[in-house]
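$ fold --in a.seq
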Amino acid sequence: MECALKLVDAQATRALGGRLARDWLALPAAHTRPLLLLRGDLGAGKTCLVQGLATALGIDEPITSPTFALAQHYQGDHGALVHLDLYRLEQAAAADELLAQEEEAALELGALLAVEWPERLSLVPRPCWQLQLTLLDPQNPEAGRQADLIT
């Protein structure tokens, strides 16, 4: 299913994250739940969306981009979250290896796995939901974003 949304501000971006987390939690745990692949330029709102995921999962600690740590694990009242950022990994093999490690950890935790910069991977993992965030006006981030979701 494909869907396009206009997100007028950061609050709308976080709200979309919350909706995605609730949809993900509603999937049967017996089936393999999808990863969430987040695409978009720097400043497009990927981490903001992950903050919305975290809120819906009952995570009350601050969510920041794991650009330097590469991965962060969070546990909330309603579920767990693994937040992965592949931006600094230039080699696809390194990105693939890190994803495999974090995917295993996410499965053990029953966690939603959100991956920023999945274009660093050698192939698109399945099953996945893909979300492209695009600033409507790159000169003015306050103008909002376009979210294109493929589930």
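$ fold --in b.seq
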Amino acid sequence: MKLKLKYKELNIQNESKKENYAAVAILIYDEKEILFIKRSNDMPTHKGHIAFPGGKKEIDDLSIVDTATREASEELLISRTDVQPFGQLDPVDTIEFKNKVYPILCSLSKLPTSYNKSEVQSVFLVPIEELRDTNNWRFRGVYPQDWVFKIEQETLWGATAKITRELLSLS
């Protein structure tokens, strides 16, 4: 990937996790855009939030990468072969989910034409250049690193905003 992103190479040997966790797929399309979803209001956590596709470990998941790619495939109704993992960020904590969330960077070879409406309300592709522009971010200040970014009429905030800013070296 030619983009200047701040991430670590995947560590296959250390990625198998026994504890409960969640993983998200940071899907980068054409090295120009990042895909975000708006979560359904019917989801158990983070209802209606702008997020990366992702979710909790399931019993058959072999690794954090497996969880992230499975979730992306299920939520966006795409083939897992369209999602190519290449890196990872340090895990983050969220308020609603008590376990660690592991961000996995993936290139997305084909855009979704639909999505799982029971889990996703809408899909957004945001140009990386817009996300990199610090003038597009606003500091809310409710807690440390409380930055927000507008995506159409929606607000990117919380753990997803923190992960995005870390990836783009804006933190």
